[in-house]
Specification:
The chain is of the alpha+beta class. It is about 25% helix and about 25% strand. It has helices spanning about 1-35, 75-85, 165-170; strands spanning about 60-65, 70-75, 100-110, 115-130, 140-150, 155.
Length: about 190
């Protein structure tokens, strides 16, 4: 009887260890998947890891197209420049300025008593960084787009996400130091 109880306890310990290891593997896999975006980089350009913490940056502005809802957030360097009057004061954004545009497919808010669209599925994250030494051919700016796949909960560089991606379009706002987004009145 003692031997049978000892074997049952030993089996229980083995099963408990196996369950613990399996649980840690699942949690570890989720943590790895959540951090996976920070291993991505566009060829010869921006790394997603250069924008670590963008989820907590201050909002610069929001916008909407027919298909997407967008929020633009900026790092403290760029926010300080905006508050100092850049680009309206004729000065350029300083090196180290970073802005992220987070884009969602919208949905109607079913709880709202009036029509309002809210973010639904994340579409992509568009990143812009100012670094005159690294990106002299694009007036110091680099651009990257990382598409989000909701099925796998992962990001991947957009096929157009190279160093020059975005620059041609942003030349339209050369007088604003190549940034479309104005810092809205608070």
């Amino acid at each position: 009887m003692f031997a049978t109880t000892l074997l049952s306890l030993r089996g229980l310990r083995v099963a408990s260890r196996a369950a613990l290891i399996a649980g840690l593997a699942v949690v570890g896999g989720r943590v790895f998947a959540a951090e996976d975006k920070y291993t991505l980089r566009v060829p010869n350009g921006l790394a997603f890891s250069d924008f670590r913490g963008y989820e907590n940056w201050q909002v610069v502005s929001v916008s909407q197209t027919e298909d997407l809802l967008k929020v633009m957030v900026a790092n403290p360097t760029m926010i300080d420049a905006y508050r100092a009057g850049v680009p309206g004061n004729g000065k350029p954004f300083p090196d180290g300025s970073k802005i992220a545009k987070i884009e969602w497919k919208p949905k109607k808010n079913p709880e709202s008593p009036f029509f309002v669209r809210v973010p639904d599925t994340l579409q992509d994250v568009f990143l812009i960084e100012k670094n005159n030494k690294r990106f002299p051919d694009t007036k110091g700016w680099a651009y990257a787009v990382f598409d989000y796949d909701p099925g796998s909960d992962t990001f991947k560089p957009n096929k157009t996400g190279v160093v020059n991606c975005g620059f041609a379009c942003h030349t339209k706002v050369m007088a604003e130091d190549y940034i479309f987004t104005a810092y809205g009145k608070r």
